[in-house]
Amino acid sequence: MIVKFYGIRGSHPTPNANFLKYGGNTPCVVIRDKGKVIIFDGGTGIIEVGKELIKEDRSDIYIFISHSHYDHIQGLPFFKPFFRRSKRKIKIYGPSFLEKSYDKVLEEFLSSPFIPFSLNELRGKDSIEIITLEEKEKIFLFENGVMKTIHSKNHPLHGVHLFSYLSSSKKITYMTDIKVDDGIMKELVAFARDSDILIFDSFFLKKESGEEDESKRFGHSSFEDALKVKELSGSKMLYFFHYNPDYSDEILDGVKKEFEKNNAFLSFEGLEVNLDD
Ligand SMILES: [Zn+2]
Ligand SMILES: [Zn+2]
Predict the structure, then answer these.
(1) Per the CATH hierarchy, to which homologous superfamily does domain 2-272 belong?
(2) How far is the CA of 88 from the centre of ligand 2 (A)?
(3) What pTM did the predictor assign?
(4) Hey, where are the domains in the chain?
(5) CA 94 to centroid of ligand 2, rounded, Å
């Protein structure tokens, strides 16, 4: 199984010279496991994923969207596999919004005047199937694995879905855009329990997270919060993720050395982690 990072930046892309070592694309992480391609989030990182999948002629694609903030969906209109007829439908799992199914949410996002095509035109190609994630815990079964999702309200205004993928022998947990606090720590630790890889929101350096109100307002965690979840959950490796768009390579290089001894690493665009099954 391979986990690869295609977009690690939070809030908005940072295609500037001082940010390219870690990367400027917004969130997208891909798991390749026995023929399945599982994609977390559709930030601008998913554009490159799409190009690769077209070349490989892959059709067993599952996209899980944590929430509908722009940085997690802005690459979707440019995901090339949507535009071809495929042997199997691409499945997109995304959150409901108020009373709206994810179908409706996407329909509004993929429409005029924002883009020159509509979701229904894509669906006309019979290429996609949309599944709505509700707030209650849910488990999706695959041929050789299981995806579990829970919802947390600790991200403004409508919360976020957290995902855990279990293959036959490995566990990958993806938790982004979430503010750790004492009220939810137990739940997060239980969800991440014994992960081989934990990918966790690391938007703030503790010293820059400022007043408690500030970090709450944005609904994000610090590098230290992420490490705490890793340690308490007994997870083997932590990859920091969803960096503040103001953090240049120089700032992130400074953080790197501080955490490596704890098996906690900075994710960067293009990073591949191989896990033997
Ligand atoms: Zn985000
Ligand atoms: Zn968000």
Answers:
(1) Ribonuclease Z/Hydroxyacylglutathione hydrolase-like (3.60.15.10)
(2) 30
(3) 0.96
(4) 2-272
(5) 14
> How do residues 117-176 score in pLDDT, each as one tens digit?
999 888 888 889 999 999 999 999 998 899 999 999 999 989 999 999 999 899 999 999
Bridge partners of 141?
146
CA atoms within 13 A on the CB side of 66: 34
Q: What is the pLDDT of residues 237-268, one digit of tens each?
A: 999 999 999 999 999 999 988 898 999 999 99
Residue 93 to residue 47: CA distance in whole angstroms: 18
How far does residue 236's CA lie from ligand 1's centre (Å)?
24
Residue 125 CA to ligand 1 centre (angstroms):
30
pLDDT band at 17 (very low <50, low <70, confident <90, very high): very high
C-alpha–C-alpha distance, residues 213 and 219, integer Å:
10
pLDDT of residue 164: 98
DSSP string, 10-46: -SS---SGGGTTT--PPPEEEEEETTEEEEE--STHH
Distance 152 CA to ligand 1 centre (A): 14
Q: Cα(55) to centroid of ligand 1, in Å?
A: 29
Q: What does pLDDT average to over the chain?
A: 93
**For residue 155, how far is its CA from the centre of ligand 2 (angstroms)?**
7
Q: Read off the amino acid at residue 77.
A: P
Say how many Å lie between the CA of residue 34 and the centre of ligand 1.
Answer: 29
